[in-house]
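Take one record.
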Amino acid sequence: MYDIKIKDGESREAYIHRIYSNQTLIGDNECLGEICRKELNESFDESAYRKTYQNFIKMFDAIKDQFYDASYIKKMQEQKDELYKERVKVRDQTREKYKTLRDEARIEVLIDAIRQSAESYPEIKPIYRDEITMAKDGAEGILTLSDWHVGSEVDNFRNEFNEQILEKRVATLVRKTIKYCMVHNVTKLAVIHTGDILDGLIHTSLRLESEFDVIEQVKKASSLIYQLLINLSENIKNVSFRGVLDNHSRVVANKHEHVEKENFSNLIFWWLEAKLEGSRVRIIKDNLDENIGLFQLNNGKNVFFVHGHLDPPATVTQNLSFGSGVMADIVILGHYHADKMKTFQGKKVYLAGSLRGVDSFALNHRMFGDPTQMLLIFDEDEIVDIRLNL
């Protein structure tokens, strides 16, 4: 630690010069001024000490050639340059430190706000409840929530979509899921969010089609998924929820500047985690990373799920298997707004549909798929693939 005490025989001016010339070791100007006031037993403003030091440096630079040879001046300049570089380093480190602290504080405030919002959200009455007593043991299912694009508005000859239609389609999704789970005696249901639940802000054209801003999208999506999960848990014994990140929900529109973890979908996960605490729904956070989900079915099959913006369907099975060291038996992707299933060497790749349906992009590319979500039911080695039309 630097010695800030006045030394024996040290003049006032010499002390001020020593303190300010070692600023990188001590602190900012306010700190230096406070030290000088205290040690010199004075009451001057900080600027008085700083200007004394600056005036000395200015005068010294003007007359140094008269007293020192060129080599000595060069050496002094080099030392001065090194000192300046150290000051810049310290300043940058300090700035980065406070930026990190500010970011952490903002995140903590945001999480607190999300938790308060979740806690204040009213309890819901189930949209639908079957009177059949829930079975103790039965089949296992996977419900994929894919490409809802909450916040977008569509109106074309093939499809209409807005907030009211979104709510109706989610209610239909709940009813149909419960219906088929009851028919097939499903007692364990994994609900997986494969991304693009939000419309986001990544393209200007999407913002023009958006019905409300991204924060309102987060609130709406969170409440709808909450209602869906609560209603499913009223009718199915074991309901869990997992999710991955995507491209539409990224915080930064430019994909080249984007960091994958900076994603508005995280807000949905935080909201649900707070709101579902104490419920029968289990939120499971066991992904390999933010973009790759992996879990195992009761029959031992390994299920991977990803959004799809980083994974071509033709190579996703081998990429995930080789990359993780776990053989992928089933891979589920969203992103492509397609209802397809492909088999590669006996391993199945499912492409899930979009709840939103045909938008302007799909229309221009002549992709006329209906709004759907996917329900897979596993009864030992049998797979029932149900595309729920909404």
